[in-house]
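Lecture 7 notes. Example A: sequence first, then its structure tokens.
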Amino acid sequence: MLIHSAAQVLTLAGGAQRGTSLGDLGLIEDGAVLFRDGRIVETGLSPDLLKKYPDEKRMDVRGKVVMPGFVDPHTHVVWAGDRSAEFEMRLQGKTYLEIMEAGGGIVSTVLATRNASLKQLKDQTRPRLKRMFAHGTTTLEGKTGYGLNSETELLMMQALLELDQEEPLDIAFTYLGAHAVPPEYEGDTAGYTDLVCEEMIPALADWWAEHTKRPFPYIDVFCETGAFDLAQSRKILETAKEYGFPLKIHADEFDNLGGVSLAVELGAASADHLVVTSAEDIKALGKSDTVAVALPCTPFGLAESEYSPAKDILDAGGILAIATDINPGTAWCESMQFAAALACRYMKLTPNQAIAAATINAAAAIGMEEKVGSLETGKQADLIVLDIPDYRHIGYRFGTNLVETVIKQGQVYQG
């Protein structure tokens, strides 16, 4: 199909964008995109491609913007139940840590998820994936982390694997057995850390080899006060690395424990949250290929005033991405468009920077930049058509879905 006469085609060509170079959209006015067999063949000016390919099936998108599908590189999209009652508690003045200490927070979702069957997990997750897709997300990362025992963590992974086959979105997989300390290990974080390292990670390696031929999933850890300290996080990630798993880390959401420098040292694909990251850690990040994944929906969901220091990360030369962090407790948000709007307002990104952070840099955060995140010859034909005349409407507008059409691997889905 030849998509033509776009007001703007944003190719995002050229790979992940570091530092102050963030925001190169590869913009083509009156642009066109040709794809065949689910792959991009060529981008260029509409008159040129219409002349060069006269016999192609065509889609006239006159006056609209065409760009790569959004990539959401940090999600907790699989869970059971909800935590609407905790939202009310927060409005009454309770902090996130206070809610956790009262038995709420992540542990509340753990209990609901442990009681759910595979079918129930999939049935509750599928509508979230469909809403994400309708809002233009064509690739996402999905984490486990609400089981906190080997059985339920693997059940969540099974749900992700099956949903990846059944839904049009591509899913990158992350195992987050070290998301929190389960109730049965209350007061014994060291004991649970040992369980993760000695039983859960080895069990995952065996289970994965038995159930799929895919590359190993990422292993992640929540390095934070009330979760896992720096030494425990190191032990978990080093164990994972010994087994051959690629790495990620949650760090610096509330306290700066040094998780970012640990991620850089161990060659993690990304370090995520990064709200209170130190200047030293930012400097280390800027010299590495570890992607800084900011989650603006999370401080927004918590009504916090601090967001990821995007300017400092970019000035240091870092690779910055954004994600929704969709989860039941702090950020039930299925729209990367809204994440971009928040990033513009509270992280002070420009619309073009937010778009790059939500596409090609987000793809780099999950190791998929060679496959998705830009419109380049040979890449997957993952595109969205937005009913807007100019890319700057992304970020400028919020609370409505601007996506008219989603194209995933060459298949057309109407919004």
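Example B, a different protein, same format:
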Amino acid sequence: MSMNIALSGLGAAQKDLNTTSNNIANANTFGFKESRAEFGDVYSNSIFSNGKTTTGGGVQTSTVAQQFHEGSSIYTNNPLDLRVSGSGFFAVADNKNEPSNNNLTRNGAFHLNNENELVNSEGKFLLGYPVNKDSNTVASYEAKSMKIDDVFGQPTKSGTIKVSLNLPNKETTPKNSPFDFKDPDSFNKSTSSTIYDSLGKPYKMTTYYVAKYDPNAVPTNANTWEVHQTVTNNSGQERLLKPDPASIPAAYQVIDNTNPAAPVVTGYRMRFDQNGQPYPGDPGNPPAVPATPPMPLNIQMETFASAGIDVGGADPTQSLTMNYDDPTQYASAFEVRKFQDVDGATTGYLSKVDIDPEGNILASYSNGKDIVVGRVALARVSNEQGLAQLGGTLWNTTQESGQAIWGDASQGSFGSVKSGTLEQSNIDMTQELVDLITAQRNFQASSRALDVNNQLQQNILQIR
């Protein structure tokens, strides 16, 4: 009997040594969770034994319990290195066509494979949710493999240009008049941006601002501004892009009267009130003389064909709409707060990938477009210690752990996702070394008990 007790002690000490050694061996394994050997005593009794004098029967391993507290962070330069800060697991699948057969992991070391799909070091596919392109909200909580296209879309022509700027108050008029884009002394300020035709070819669009004294302005000593735009075509020739007269009231048209028989609208005016805001129009009672309507904020330009721009096979009917968003005239420096081409883009190539704390995967392309291609899926279970360990820092759900509960990062009980960060093993090396010494001493003590039992049996056998 005592021999068996000593043997059970040896087995328990060996199990403790194995568990501690496994923890130490995985000190540098990302997402690894330490284990702890837990033991229970062996005791049996019957109606024919005296409970007051019965000794135990040794020790047995109750369970090797995993400890799921968080490990510390290690920071990397790879935006596809992820960690869950808080509760939750990443989900990975062996087959991208069968995402329902998945495993859970805390190891967030991912990369792109040769098809631009997010995978881990074992080639398992990271699962995520598709998102609505307009609202960036989850379209379906049916997790799928995540793919980032290295080329984004077909080229689209520029249509709407959103502009927000400040034109300085009391700017002096240029030395030369009338405006000529070839003469820098005929305008005060200029800016340039890139627009695209229907084939994705870029063009340089330049906007010129000319300060003008306007006796009809309110107040009468305030400046108004003339705005002229040009487009430089593929041959390097700069062509004046004129506004459509139908989109501008006559009071805001800049007219070239060189030919009185056929005057041409070459630009448009911007006028501001005494508060530096777009002129709201004449008061109704009494009317101003001459009466002027409110300053237009949306101006339709002529087509590229009408401007004589060589588009080389692209759509010649393309035209731009200048949409002014909160323009001002304050006593501060000239500032373009926004000059955004809403529609235009050429074919873009993947240049950068970012992942925000909510798990949104943001792909940036060389054409300036930023697209949310999906959201990293997170899963959790009711009882983490009930998960079945598979190796490779992978777990499977079991009846004991409960089914996986799917959700979003930073929502409810789910933790946030941190990009460029990995979760290290959660073991405490100091504690593990102490446990190793303790397990070794227990093993030695059980060995000694076994040796003593052996000696006693030898002594009994030698009795004559």
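Note on Example B: The mean pLDDT is 88. The longest helix spans residues 429-461.
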